[in-house]
Design a protein that fits this description.
The protein has 58 residues and is of the alpha+beta class. The protein contains 1 helix and 3 strands, in the order E-E-E-H.
Length: 58
């Protein structure tokens, strides 16, 4: 894909990063670390971490 857009990283192995990419029907999409790093660098290495809220005890 030749357009800038967001993907979601859903897993990793020693050789690949697995992403969910709305531009592709195949999920998860395996991507080499080198290709991922080049694409991430093109996007100024922006990222977001989404975590569930921490609820108080009780």
């Amino acid at each position: 894909m030749e357009s800038q857009h967001t993907v979601t990283v859903i897993g990793m192995t020693a050789d690949e990063i697995f992403v969910s990419d709305p531009d592709f029907a195949e999920h998860p999409l395996p991507v080499s670390y080198g290709d991922f790093d080049l694409a991430w660098l093109e996007m100024d290495e922006r990222f977001a971490v989404i975590e569930p809220p921490i609820l108080p005890p009780g």
